[in-house]
Structures are given as C-alpha cells and as structure tokens.
Design brief:
Blueprint (H helix, E strand, L loop, with lengths): L1 E5 L6 H14 L4 E5 L11 H17 L4 E6 L4 H7 L3 E5 L8 H6 L8 E3 L4 H12 L1
Parallel strand pairs: 1-3, 1-4, 2-3, 4-5
Helix pairs in contact: 1-5, 2-3
C-alpha cells in the first residue's frame, strides 16, 4: 500500500512518517519510507523538478515489495498528488505557511485525502492511521 504524507515544510510530516513506520514495523509489517526533502536529486528552483518529484517518488514506491510504502513530501499541487497516485493520503495541515514563500504561494489545499491532521499529536494520529489501514 502506497501512503502519501503531504503538507508544507515544517508541518511535522517527517516526524509522523517516522513514527508511522516504526509502529507498522512493531506490528510485523514490512515498510519502506522515502522522504523527498532529503533526496540529493531535488532542485526546488525549477518548477519542472518539483513536478518530477511525484514521478520519482511514485517510481520508488511502485518498485517496493514491502507491505507499506510511506512517501512524505510537500506535494504542493493537485497535479503532483494525482501523479503520485497514493492509496492513502495524509494531509499534515498543522501550519498555514512557513519561511518558503514560493512554496506557500503554490500550495493548493487538497480536495481529497483520507486523513487531515490539524494538530500534531503523534501517538494519537499514528494509532488512528494504523487503524484505518487495517
């Protein structure tokens, strides 16, 4: 199952992804986790590169043989999220903007998602998401 954890930078996406990965592993599931923010291939100065992020992350996720593949990245537009084609989407909506004005400008609030997190309480949300996935 391909899980997208998306939201603007500094919204606690990475912490949620890590906690979810560890919980699923504790439950005996195999998990791969990819974070585009820490990829050496990123270049946010070029809009085309941002759109390519979804295709790159989708390629990694589709190649995985794990039970769950968690991909966390900004996924700023509807097109990017559609290109990624997640099975389950978590929108981490804990902050409205950050220091990156260009990201704040292009970010489109998602119209569809499985879970929206407005206040980050990792233990609560990890348990909630795991229950949704089972």
């Amino acid at each position: 199952m391909k899980i997208l954890i998306m939201g603007i930078p500094d919204s606690d996406r990475i912490a949620l992804a890590q906690a979810l990965k560890h919980k699923l592993i504790e439950l005996g599931r195999t998990v791969d986790w990819y974070n585009f923010d820490h990829s050496n291939d990123r270049n946010f100065g070029d809009w085309g590169q941002i759109e390519q992020a979804a295709l790159y992350m989708r390629k990694l996720a589709n190649a995985s043989e794990s039970d769950f593949v968690i991909c966390d990245f900004v996924a700023a537009t509807h097109k990017i999220r559609d290109n990624f084609a997640a099975d389950y989407t978590v929108w981490v909506d804990t902050i409205q903007e950050n220091e990156y004005a260009d990201t704040n400008q292009i970010f489109e609030k998602p119209k569809t998602f499985n879970t929206r997190i407005a206040v980050c309480n990792l233990d609560f949300w990890v348990d909630f998401i795991v229950n949704q996935l089972q």
